[in-house]
Specification:
Blueprint (H helix, E strand, L loop, with lengths): L1 E6 L3 H11 L5 E7 L2 H11 L3 E4 L8 H11 L4 E6 L4 H10 L3 E4 L4 H12 L4 E2 L1 H12 L11 H9 L3 H11 L4 H8 L3 H15 L4 H10 L4
Parallel strand pairs: 1-2, 1-3, 3-4, 4-5, 5-6
Helix pairs in contact: 2-3, 3-4, 6-11, 8-10, 8-11, 9-10
Amino acid sequence: MIRLLIADDHAMVRRGLQVFLATQPNIEMVGEAANGEETLEKANHLNPDVVLMDLNMPILNGIDTTARLKKEQPRIKVIVLTSFIDYDHVLPAIRAGARGYLLKDIEPEDLVAAIRRVYEGQVELHPDAAGLLMTHVTSPAGTDETSGSGHQEAAQLDKLTRREQEVLQLIASGMNNREISEALYITEKTVKTHVSHLLDKLGVADRTQAAIYALKHGIV
């Protein structure tokens, strides 16, 4: 059962999502929040698996709320559900730790599928959001923003063992730990160890940032 929390400052949006998602098998609606501070409080008490996060909320916006959630409760997966699709929203949201970035005009069935995939460890991005990320990581202006110079990043990559590079490649392809373990014929516990080590060596916070790193350096 996927425990789901909805964070959006519009009551009609929350109600519409609840009406549809409550009918879906294996999804349990555990609560809703109208602003960022309330989202953090509800997440602490309700222990959701996934949060559908609006970006434009009062008191604390969705990006800052996502960053707080990833720091305080890293097991919770955040899917941004918004109307904004531009650099100023997509890049900060991913950097904050969002595992998905979707637009509110998404078909309901596609949203359910995305929730399940993110819960399983995959990354879900609207095509336009993915395009912005690709443009960013392949452009000269985006090369040095998060990890220093290109030489420093290359040095970080060289620190990875061959197996860690293989795991990174599969993360970038969207595989979860179970799928990686099956592809490489190793246990899920071993996969988790490799993931932890490569995140530390690359200096990134989570699998989403690792996937972006891999795309940036052609590890696909």
